[in-house]
Amino acid sequence: MSFDLGVWYPDERISNEEAGKLYERLCDSDTRGVVANPAVDRFYAELTAKHPEIDKVPEAKINDLDCSPWSCKLDHSPGHVIMSCVWPKATDVHKTVQNLARKHGLAIYDPQSDVISYPDGSTGTKANRGALWILSFFGALFAAIFVYVGQISPSGSPVVFYYAFAGLCVLMAAACFRQTRR
Predict the structure, then answer these.
(1) Where are the extended beta strands (E) located within 45-152?
(2) What average pLDDT does range 130-153 have in this prediction?
(3) Which pLDDT does position 132 carry in this prediction?
(4) Burial (CB count <10 Å: 0-12, 13-18, 19+), residue 85
(5) pLDDT of 182
(6) Which of 39, 60, 143, 178 is most buried, judging by how many CB atoms fall within 10 Å of its CB?
(7) What is the pTM of this model?
(8) Annotated domain spans of the chain
(9) Which residues have a Cβ under 8 Å from the Cβ of 134 and sit 6 or more positions away?
């Protein structure tokens, strides 16, 4: 059994489900869903400099999992890299691949958890629009309440705090509303 990961250039944001389907197609050598990008080749070069391909490992180091943790040859094209490592090295390989993917601006798909992670740290999980609308409404409502309380508060009270909280609520409402528009 192996621990598998897929990396590709994210020319568009896709959901976890769409990433899973793309990963399956890539495993079947169907590269139509990815876009060639030099970042993929740079990622591959840096990854294999640290952990050489299994067929490039010297005979004396063939069982050295720190040298090459791969359970088979990497599947590499100008648009993607699919890798399988042995389970004892899964945590280390996942960290290495994740760091390199972010460094090179690539998305990483983990088929074990069915999650795609983008270079900015976000995932392919889609937010519930209804919940975002409700959160936007309450953010705006609380902003209005803070402004009102700031206006009716007795002199000498820290009015600036009311307006600061109102501003934060407006920012939260705007961010939530923006997410509903995507």
Answers:
(1) 75-77, 80-86, 107-110, 115-117
(2) 80
(3) 72
(4) buried
(5) 59
(6) 143
(7) 0.69
(8) 2-117, 129-180
(9) none
